[in-house]
Prior knowledge:
Elements: E1 5-13, E2 28-37, E3 48-56, E4 63-66, E5 74-82, E6 87-97, H1 100-110, H2 116-131, E7 134-142, H3 145-148
Antiparallel strand pairs: 1-5, 2-3, 2-6, 3-4, 6-7
Helix pairs in contact: 1-2
Amino acid sequence: MVGRMLQANLSLTNSGAGHFFPTYVTPRVVLEVYQEGADGSMADGTDQRLVIAREVSLDLSTEYSDTRLSPGQTAVLEYMRPRSLDAVLIVMKVYVQPDAFYSRFFQALLETDLGETSRALIGRALAESNRSAFVIFEDRFEIAAETRQSGDGD
């Protein structure tokens, strides 16, 4: 805690691959930190993310960004947000979206003129690619009660 701000760092190191991580344009890895209320939901405006990926156009002709990690490289998400009065936890996650590129591709197809059968099949493919995401790390830290109390005279 720094004044009325909450601060945390979440890092990920490419320590085992002898190549860029993730390898190709299909997956993306996301580091995420946010504050969570007693009801288990994310407090509005408290999330911060760092995406590790190679983002390209759907036709593969243009590279928009490449934030992949080279061997030995570390990515650090430096979280600093005002504390939410409703928050009781800081949540830190790292998750993988192995089919992120395909999800973008299927979504773009659904925005075109498709027949009913094609739309249903592409819709199922989109849902399946979205479901493939998984969490590889998650930790939760309690926000001290004195930090959660409001008070304008501090």
